[in-house]
Amino acid sequence: MRPWIPALIVLVACKGVTEPPPEGNDEEVITTVELTIDNGTPFVWEDLELDGNPTVDPVTVSIGSHAVSVRFLNGLEDPPEDITEEVEIEATQHQVFWEVPAGFTWTTGDQDANGLPLGLTGTLEAPDVASGDLTVTLRHMPEEGGEPVKVAGLAEVAATDGIDALPGDTDVRVTFAISVEE
User: Fold this and answer.
1) What does the alpha-carbon distance between residue 72 and residue 162 come to, in Å, rounded to a whole number?
2) Which residues pair with 72 in a beta bridge?
3) Does the pLDDT of residue 16 top 70, yes or no?
4) Mean pLDDT across the stretch 102-108?
5) Which residues of 7-20 are buried (b: 16+ CB within 10 A; e: fewer)?
6) Rounded to whole angstroms, how far apart are CA atoms 109 and 34?
């Protein structure tokens, strides 16, 4: 056995203890997405069987401005693993994209350490009585070749060219039916 091999193994093992892996991060299993509006009971999208046939709560809001937050969970663990914590830790490599129906407005409320949008929280402006689809996409965007791929303006790229035009990979993409009631 070469003398440098054990030292290399120790260095790799120690590195993982103190900092998150930079690239090649294992994808997390996300079975559940919870939207909380105005600190109320969460609206839930859930696919515990991972068969592409989720149960989805319809979202109903009143006209006006609403504080919104999102959580990502692995419901196959007991207790369910909160993937949102990892997203917060690796915020410079993640962004949540919000696609809202016509007439609605989304404003991201949080940022990563570089001052770029994160999207775990925000404000949803609901117009007069309306309905449509609210789509939430968690995108993982690790550095490529030592350069960040999460840069300013990605929400605009997603809005004009679609989610697939963004760098990185989609961790989860879910759609809720949303309606506004008086």
Assistant:
1) 22
2) 33
3) no
4) 96
5) eeeeeeeeeeeeee
6) 17
Single-letter amino acid, residue 23: E
The tokens of 17 are what?
Answer: 């203890």
Angle value at C-alpha 86, between 142 and 23, nearest 5 degrees: 25
Confidence of residue 26 (pLDDT cuts 50, 70, 90): low
The full 3-state SS of 44-81, as one line of letters, equals EEECCCCCCCCEECCEEEECEEEEEEEEEEECCCCCCE
Residue identified by tokens 């490529």 is: 144
